[in-house]
Amino acid sequence: MQKLYNQIKSLGNYKPSKRVNALFTKLVDVVLSKKYINLSKVQINSLQKICSMAEYELEKYWAQKIIKSSKPDATLKDFVYLENYQKLTRLEWFSLKSCSFHKRHSILFIGGGPLPMTAIILASAYKQKVTILERERVAFQIASKLIQKLKLNKKIQVVNSDALDFNLYYKHNVIFLAALVSQKNKVLSKIKLKIKKNTHILARSSWGTRKILYKPLSKSSFNIFKPIIEIKPMNDIVNSFIIFKNN
Fold this sequence. Notes:
This protein has eight helices and seven strands, in the order αααααβαβαββαβββ. The protein has helices at residues 2-9, 18-32, 41-68, 72-76, 82-96, 117-125, 137-149, 184-194, and strands spanning 107-110, 130-134, 156-160, 174-177, 200-205, 226-231, 240-245.
């Protein structure tokens, strides 16, 4: 693992290439194998930051590829992590479907990135309307063009706003918190002030060796909202998630 860590650290940039793709594919395989990871806390923290940057570059690359494509839907199907997103979103959606408080769901997704796969799957596979909150201007612009290209603009709206500045949380009864959202506790505390009773918050996290890829939700987050269910997939789905309810 130390060798792989050093190889990833030595990369000049994290834009998709044969070497970058091969190293991160190997990293994911190692993480999912649940083998002992002999890295220090400093190294794990460094890898989490690198994975965040690499994921952004990967999403940007594929989003722009789809936008330029004459067959965008077919190009989307070639996205390397599409199946993983489909499996995760299916788990999340049917966990939310067990809700008995809402006849329909009004979904807000915080941190969609340049390639908002979850929103795309919720809109296309489950016919849901989704509002995406994206604070980074470039990611917002790319995602907006992508949604137009996929002809999903009647189902998906992209809003350029920081989660800490947004004040319309009360319009939604389901709020997704992406795994890469920073300052999660501050965001959750802001949401708490603005939402209605029985609103569900689905926060993505990580567990076990998967913490190398994504920083897990802190234990203090469980004091902000009441946890309803926590799902830790044992298969090749990378993220875990917790559904909270606002009492």
